[in-house]
């Protein structure tokens, strides 16, 4: 692009030379692929170098500049939480106390499984732990889901949040989305492509078996290893079936196609309420 393409009023603009401007200019220029003619491919010209130097990690469905910033902030927050020095903020000190309590492995080891046992008993008896003591007649699926979402913030079959309307941010809507699998929100492929992710599924199965065995010992219930293994296999097989009906992450990039607004009174036509 020659000099004639630059408007006359832009030729007289002064360029800021303060450190902030220089830093911003460096970040922008380092993201550009200036070997490309912007008239041929402006996207490659503006972002090509950043894309080539930042491939999407396997654990992400997308990656952008904000992703690197988010990772950096997470590292800074961890250093803050690990620090023993008071921050002067009552709210932040409370968060640090909770974080450090979660990271206190010695205390957790002494407590053994008492806290998780108390939490699971609030939700109901866990078949993998209690075996034949679990009663299907006494099991209320709806009540269990309500308690789980309210107390554990776990989105099993569906994710429900109150968020701004994407098409009208002045109002809020109840957003209902697909839930989360045991290996994570974006882990659908782990269950679908068993050959590729056999190691991850094997580790997940071992994790379930090991934890269930330890908790059953803390409860004082004797269960055969084969019984726990069968229960773990049932869990994973159920998740595989659930993964098959979930929308893959690569098909969730178009927010317009995911936007379906209904009234609360319309719900009975979709589900039994």
TrEMBL record:
A Pfam family the protein falls into: Peptidase_M13_N
Domain (Peptidase M13 N-terminal): residue spans on this chain: 38-268
PROSITE patterns in the cross-refs: NEPRILYSIN
GO cellular component, one term: plasma membrane
BP GO terms, sorted: protein processing
Single Gene Ontology MF annotation: metalloendopeptidase activity
Gene3D superfamilies to which the protein is assigned, alphabetical: Collagenase (Catalytic Domain), Neutral endopeptidase , domain2
Cross-referenced InterPro entries: MetalloPept_cat_dom_sf, Peptidase_M13, Peptidase_M13_dom_2, Peptidase_M13_N
Superkingdom of origin: Eukaryota
UniProt similarity note: Belongs to the peptidase M13 family.
Protein name as it appears in the record: Peptidase_M13_N domain-containing protein
